[in-house]
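Regression test attached.
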Amino acid sequence: LSADSLVAGALAGDRRALGRLISLVEDGGPEVGPVMRALYPHTGGAYSLGITGAPGAGKSTLTERLVGRVRADGHSVGVLAVDPSSPLSGGALLGDRVRMQSHATDPDVFIRSMATRGHLGGMSLATPEAMRVLDAAGKDYIVVETVGVGQAEVKVTDACDTTVVVLNPGWGDAVQAAKAGLLEVADVFVINKADRKGVRAAERELAQMLELSPVERKPEIIPTVATTGEGIDALWAAIERHRAAQSDEDMALARRRRIAAEIRDIAIERYRARLEERCAGILDRLAEEVEARELDPYEAAAQLSGATESHRRGPR
Amino acid sequence: LSADSLVAGALAGDRRALGRLISLVEDGGPEVGPVMRALYPHTGGAYSLGITGAPGAGKSTLTERLVGRVRADGHSVGVLAVDPSSPLSGGALLGDRVRMQSHATDPDVFIRSMATRGHLGGMSLATPEAMRVLDAAGKDYIVVETVGVGQAEVKVTDACDTTVVVLNPGWGDAVQAAKAGLLEVADVFVINKADRKGVRAAERELAQMLELSPVERKPEIIPTVATTGEGIDALWAAIERHRAAQSDEDMALARRRRIAAEIRDIAIERYRARLEERCAGILDRLAEEVEARELDPYEAAAQLSGATESHRRGPR
């Protein structure tokens, strides 16, 4: 299928076309630009939720419950489960099939695991692009769930309108969240597995951390038990309150800031691609010279930049 | 103090100079290039260990024990505790003072927390540079401990000669490790907190995962109890075996690969800096046009790239 017919299919809500477009975005090839251009005028209607937190915190189950909540209101939803890339082999370990079996047959729920097949820039770029595919296809809500809490994951949820950070009861989780830079990105905190001991202590600890942090709008803290559904309505209400609390200007400003970051990232990726396509031989030679200590890495990088420029300008 | 005298101080082993050079590297300013050039001829003597794993796995305590082990052999050691940046406020939450108090007064142990003060590229670049500072200062070993297990952290430990991945007993930890792409980067696995239940199960699960993975050299799996020191000698022996098992050619190849990645990253950072310094106004205007849907992000990025190029070539 051509990119044009995939775009037409996605706009008509065809699931196969949606899946293929997201694969295309993951690959990050030359068709991404034209596809994004074609989809872009159709975007802007979806509201996006980011779900992040430590591995094992219960993010997938919570996402499944939130999808159920959104569906109960009759809205359509697209879910992107973003896995960090495996640096050598690539690819997500858990397939889409084991995820969210309760929604597997619902035509208004589109679920997709995403892995970046390459470098760091890939993840933070591919996610907003995949979100745009779902947005253009008319999904009312987009939920982006990350696997971990590294920098790349934090950056991914930064592309969402409301970011939910999932913690568990137990001493130290709030400290870890602060260390991972999550206090600043959370719009709503969830303390999941709230049937365990230590929920009050976790809430208190988190509230203290937030008190010390420079964050202006203090996020709500909602206890949940995702496995039973307890607290999901309260969480949804908190998400809606966060959505309502943002003025149109706030939202526009946040969107412009994200768009600027995306444009910059695309420009940097174009540069990286240029380096990799045209300068591989030069880079190998430079690395050998640096290893032999005939050159230092900075001088080598300056030579590499120069080589890219002259390649770009073409032979003279 | 000038950069020259800081370099002279660091080469003479002055701790204050070392600390100031690492701060300089964290800031990533224009002095980094000249400093790296001056230090580079003095590097190549240190052996580097990366310690990574989930938050709370016991990495800090394990690092403290490994430092004790290295010191018992009479070797000097530099420790870099790499924290992911807090996307808004920046900075490491835990200071150096609370870390590794047992080595705080040892002049042959240099401990430093590092935070990137900015973007993703910063972390993966700043760490090898800080390692080079410690290497030039004559440290026999360099230990790089990460806070989390995100992509950026995995990339950081990729700069080390031997990478140790720390897990805990408990179902799912090996699965999480696989999801985070840790199977491929681990040279040695540690199952820390091995006084808890589930050590054998964790070992078995990990061994099965490794069996399924395409990794050629299967890493050893060492149970430890970092809080008591149990298993630390066995871990050290496994690290030494990994070191001995690499041929000179393997090591040279791995180093060249890392150097090539570093040169490429420096070139990309130079490009990013150029974008941010010279094109901020253009970027704001482009973001507004994209938000108004007069332009799509790809076309905007192409215009931004063009603007960078013409800035670089100067006014015509």
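Expected vs. actual: identical. The longest strand of chain B covers residues 47-53.
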